[in-house]
Amino acid sequence: MSDLTPPPYLVYENLLKTALMEDLGLAGDLTSEVAVPATARARTEINTRHDGRIAGLPMALDTFRLVSPEITVEVLRPDGSDVKPGDVIAVVEGPARAVLTGERVALNILQRLSGIATVTRGAARDAAKHGARVACTRKTTPGLRALEKYAVRVGGGVNHRFGLDDGILVKDNHIAAAGGLDAVLDRIRGRVGHMVKVQVEVDSLDQLEVLLKRPVDAVLLDNMGPDMLRQAVAMVAGRMVTEASGGIRPEMVASYAASGIDMLSLGWLTHSAPSLDLGLDFSFR
């Protein structure tokens, strides 16, 4: 089931303010200030132009509220809703100048996060047919990590690490710098607490065989095709969590998940997902 709990407002408040300041510059919304009467009111419907899953409405609507506390919003299709072209997902009303000022930032956020949720939805469904789950990675847009990872959860995926301090993930460069797999694992177990999970990346079955002799929580099977993954899963035999990674695109999920893997991590979900096409229909008085 999708996790629809958004990050706390304090997590993304500064992001919204920075995005609005970027758009307003030093002089503000010149066009709206000059062309739109100060007393004009606006009503706008946010609607969808393609099939998809909505994510990011709380952030988009908070954007409007930051521009003007007089703006009111009505949510018709909340985050997690599956929508089709023409569906109205929210209605925004308030001073016309303020609504026009906030529309682009709000729509950018909503389109971006809904696009991630939409792609994740399909990948998660394909993985679930084989008992696997789909996770995102740290390949996120700088400054948007908390929101993009939220969108993955709304799409039915799960989150991998949020940052470098969120668990141990030993990769090939760590192994090389430490002087070998045994050396790096000895160093880790002597320094981290019992609550910290340890995952190790391997790219061959020989490396996996060595790893299976050590007490680790999860293995990251990197750049292995479905056939090799099937062999790796058989070798692990349930002794640790198995995760596949490396160039996996959404259309490849089903074949990879059929290997019996527990988890597939796709950087694609956050670095390449197209935005969901949304529109605004305005009326003024």
From TrEMBL:
<comment type="pathway">
    <text>Cofactor biosynthesis; NAD(+) biosynthesis; nicotinate D-ribonucleotide from quinolinate: step 1/1.</text>
</comment>
<dbReference type="InterPro" id="IPR013785">
    <property type="entry name" value="Aldolase_TIM"/>
</dbReference>
<comment type="function">
    <text>Involved in the catabolism of quinolinic acid (QA).</text>
</comment>
<comment type="subunit">
    <text>Hexamer formed by 3 homodimers.</text>
</comment>
<dbReference type="InterPro" id="IPR004393">
    <property type="entry name" value="NadC"/>
</dbReference>
<comment type="similarity">
    <text>Belongs to the NadC/ModD family.</text>
</comment>
<dbReference type="GO" id="GO:0009435">
    <property type="term" value="P:NAD+ biosynthetic process"/>
</dbReference>
<dbReference type="Pfam" id="PF02749">
    <property type="entry name" value="QRPTase_N"/>
</dbReference>
<dbReference type="GO" id="GO:0034213">
    <property type="term" value="P:quinolinate catabolic process"/>
</dbReference>
<feature type="domain" description="Quinolinate phosphoribosyl transferase C-terminal">
    <location>
        <begin position="116"/>
        <end position="281"/>
    </location>
</feature>
<protein>
    <recommendedName>
        <fullName>Probable nicotinate-nucleotide pyrophosphorylase [carboxylating]</fullName>
        <ecNumber>2.4.2.19</ecNumber>
    </recommendedName>
</protein>
<dbReference type="InterPro" id="IPR037128">
    <property type="entry name" value="Quinolinate_PRibosylTase_N_sf"/>
</dbReference>
<dbReference type="Pfam" id="PF01729">
    <property type="entry name" value="QRPTase_C"/>
</dbReference>
<dbReference type="InterPro" id="IPR022412">
    <property type="entry name" value="Quinolinate_PRibosylTrfase_N"/>
</dbReference>
<dbReference type="GO" id="GO:0005737">
    <property type="term" value="C:cytoplasm"/>
</dbReference>
<dbReference type="InterPro" id="IPR036068">
    <property type="entry name" value="Nicotinate_pribotase-like_C"/>
</dbReference>
<keyword id="KW-0662">Pyridine nucleotide biosynthesis</keyword>
<dbReference type="InterPro" id="IPR027277">
    <property type="entry name" value="NadC/ModD"/>
</dbReference>
<feature type="domain" description="Quinolinate phosphoribosyl transferase N-terminal">
    <location>
        <begin position="29"/>
        <end position="114"/>
    </location>
</feature>
<dbReference type="GO" id="GO:0004514">
    <property type="term" value="F:nicotinate-nucleotide diphosphorylase (carboxylating) activity"/>
</dbReference>
<keyword id="KW-0328">Glycosyltransferase</keyword>
<dbReference type="InterPro" id="IPR002638">
    <property type="entry name" value="Quinolinate_PRibosylTrfase_C"/>
</dbReference>
<keyword id="KW-0808">Transferase</keyword>
